[in-house]
Design a protein that fits this description.
Blueprint (H helix, E strand, L loop, with lengths): L6 E5 L3 H12 L4 E5 L2 H11 L3 E4 L2 E2 L2 E2 H8 L6 E6 L4 H10 L3 E4 L4 H15 L9 E4 L2 E4 L4 E4 L2 E2 L4 H11 L5 E3 H9 L7 H15 L9 E4 L3 E4 L2
Parallel strand pairs: 1-2, 1-3, 3-6, 6-7
Antiparallel strand pairs: 4-5, 8-9, 9-10, 10-11, 12-14, 13-14
Helix pairs in contact: 2-3, 6-7, 6-8
Protein name: KDP operon transcriptional regulatory protein KdpE
Subcellular location: Cytoplasm
Pfam family, one: Response_reg
């Protein structure tokens, strides 16, 4: 991982968990900074300019959701929430506020590191033309021409199917909630129409995935939303 950004900020009030997370990250040659509360977390985020933040929600001087919302007014830094709050409502609230991923406690360091690598990859695409094309699993999307090919042959998508696919593919490895996708693709008047999303995702999988019943790229985050994995 040496070629990837190395500054990670861990905002967590539990010293034991901070130590475990720090040791795991430093074993991957990542540079780690710590904060035990919301205000210190904001200060460190502003001064250290981290490439990724690992954030607990239950902080002694405020809710981590407040930190996410504050950050999103001035920063696009990747945020992984690491919290004992494991309800769907908590996950949706954090993700809709601007978090990129959510891992419930207790957690395994292996899974945490995998999610860290995933978020760091988003910030460093390997393809120099990543801004113009997105290619995965035999699918190639030309964002300039607004066209999609499968194994070199044109693939027909409806206008909304295309918009949904492009929005997912331009946010790789990020959990996008139902509300986020409905706002982005259908508009603010359709935020309750989750059935639209289910129907369109099913159709997209039939066209995109080799095995639609066992998708590899368009993944469901149960009760929360969807994630695109290149």
């Amino acid at each position: 991982m040496n070629e990837l950004p190395t500054r990670i900020l861990v905002v967590e009030d539990d010293a034991t968990i901070r130590r475990v997370v720090r040791m795991a990250l430093e074993a991957e040659a990542l540079e780690v900074y710590e904060a035990e509360g919301l205000q210190r977390g904001l200060l460190e985020a502003g001064s250290r300019a981290p490439d990724l933040i690992i954030l607990d929600l239950g902080l002694p001087d405020g809710d981590g959701i407040e930190l996410i919302r504050d950050l999103r007014t001035w920063s696009e830094v990747s945020i992984i929430v690491l919290s004992a709050r494991d309800s769907e409502a908590s996950k949706i609230s954090a993700l809709d506020s601007g978090a990129d991923d959510y891992l419930a406690k207790p957690f395994g360091t292996g899974e945490l590191l995998a999610r860290v690598r995933s978020q760091l990859r988003r910030r460093h695409p390997h393809d120099s033309e990543a801004g113009a094309q997105v290619c995965f699993g035999g699918i190639c999307i030309d964002l300039n021409r607004r066209s999609v090919e499968r194994d070199g042959a044109p693939l027909h998508l409806t206008r909304l199917e295309y918009r949904l696919l492009v929005h997912l593919c331009t946010h790789p490895d990020r959990v996008l909630t139902h509300l986020h996708l409905l706002r982005a693709v259908w508009g603010p008047s359709h935020t309750e129409d989750t059935h639209y999303l289910r129907v369109f995702m099913a159709n997209l999988r039939k066209k995109i995935e080799e095995e639609p019943a066992r998708p590899r790229h368009l993944l469901t985050e149960v009760g929360v939303g969807y994630r695109f994995v290149p």
